[in-house]
Amino acid sequence: MTRVIETEEHQALRSAVAALGRRYGREYLTRIVADGGYPDELWSETAKLGYLGVNLPEAYGGGGGGIAELSIVLEELGAAGCPLLMLVVSPAICGTVIARFGTEAQKQQWLPGFADGSRTMAFGITEPDAGSNSHRITTTARRDGTDWILSGRKVFISGVDIADATLVVGRTEDARTGRLKPCLFIVPRDADGFGRRPIDMELHGAEKQFELTLDDVRLPADALVGDEDAGLLQLFAGLNPERVMTAAFAIGMGRFALSRAVEYARDRSVWKQPIGAHQAIAHPLAQAHIDLELARLMMQKAAYLYDFGDDVAAGEAANMAKYAAGEACVKAVDQAVHTLGGNGLTREFGLASLITASRVARIAPVSREMILNYVSHQTLGLPKSY
User: Rounded to whole angstroms, how far apart are CA atoms 151 and 158?
Assistant: First the structure.
């Protein structure tokens, strides 16, 4: 049965991470982004306190928890205004995939570094011509003796410049059927033929976006993670946690915006009482809070199902959680800005930049329209139009 009331351990973790987030806050992250840097101090302290690898096995320096615990970490940092996007990528996606399917050597090489913050790994799946259709991935992997040769392109890959390697989704050909199957490869950042180009984004964040080129990148046999015949099973072992963590990212951002708006509405007086006394202000903020709480419940359900090992049910719940959280985040940010009026667009209150940032949760890692497709087809059994 899915737990709807957090355990004492989860409540303690939430409280401790919230305290860490308050020590840094939105102003810290804004300054780091403006300087073109990365929040190394926050990343290192998060690791030192054991939060960065809370989902990784204890045998490799982790906390022995799951995505439920890691989502709490990201949500609370986001609620403090200083989310770490690489939490979604390195420990959640790459760490989970390697922990579940990696060889012992791969686990020893990467998981302790993920846990203590000394190593990071990016995740490369999106391609220029494939969009949200992972079945159209054209990055190919072919054997050359015992080696693998990777060729292709990736786009909108986060944090490649700071990552030690990238977990790249390629496709191998099934000799029996001729069909291409997805496989996962660890590509070191300094591999010959592995190039990156920064994408000029209107959205400013600590984690930069890149287009990658793989020009006959030669990899040893042990660069393959898991079984080349496992296909989609291994891929979605990383994508479901990604959706849960994106929900946590969105919920945290929405909570931050809402808290700023509530504080302002309590203090700001235009007539005889604070503006928060007026229902036109109070009711939309209350609705935003309700929507965020409902999204969190679905996120917790998705995390529980995933950690429990029910990948099929977790896939459905993770998509729903990501959708609900994205919608709740955008509405919360919009209402927060409107509550502050002109002040909502000033740098002082730190909300204006969230107008753009909140849209990320609607778009990435999968659009809300594709989630609606998933639910209509997989859950409701309606026919496809494509």
Answer: 20
pTM strictly above 0.85: yes
Return the active site residues.
Answer: 242
Q: Which residue, among 24, 31, 45, has the nearest Cα to 256 in the 3D structure?
A: 24
Q: Compute the distance between CA of residue 309 and CA of residue 28 in angstroms, rounded to an integer.
A: 38
CA dihedral sign of residues 68, 71, 73, 79: negative
241-to-229, 274, 386 alpha-carbon distances in Å: 22, 42, 26
- Residues 6 or more apart whose Cβ sits within 8 Å of residue 42: 20, 24, 28, 29, 77, 82, 84
Give bridge partners of residue 94 from the DSSP assignment: none
Q: How far from chain centre, in Å, is Cα 93?
A: 8
pLDDT confidence of residue 174: 63
Distance CA 76, CA 69 (A): 11
Distance of CA 130 to the CA centre of its chain: 20
Tokens for 371? 């989630």
Q: What pLDDT digit, counting tens, does each position of 312-325 carry?
A: 999 999 999 999 99
- Alpha-carbon dihedral sign for residues 176, 178, 183, 186: positive
Confidence of residue 3 (pLDDT cuts 50, 70, 90): low
Helix (H, G, I), strand (E, B) or coil at 105: helix
Question: Residues with Cβ < 8 Å from 279, sequence gap 6 or more?
Answer: none
User: Rounded to 5 degrees, what angle do the CA atoms 332, 333, 337 make?
Assistant: 115
Summarize pLDDT for 44-64 with one digit per residue, the tens.
999 999 999 999 999 999 999
CB neighbourhood size of 14 (10 A): 17
Give the 3-state secondary structure of residue 154: strand
Residues 208, 132: Cα–Cα separation, whole Å: 20
pLDDT value of residue 234: 84
Question: Taking the alpha carbons of 50, 63, 158, 184 in that order, is the dihedral positive or negative?
Answer: positive
Identify residue 7 by its one-letter amino acid code: T
Calpha distance 384→63 (Å, rounded): 42
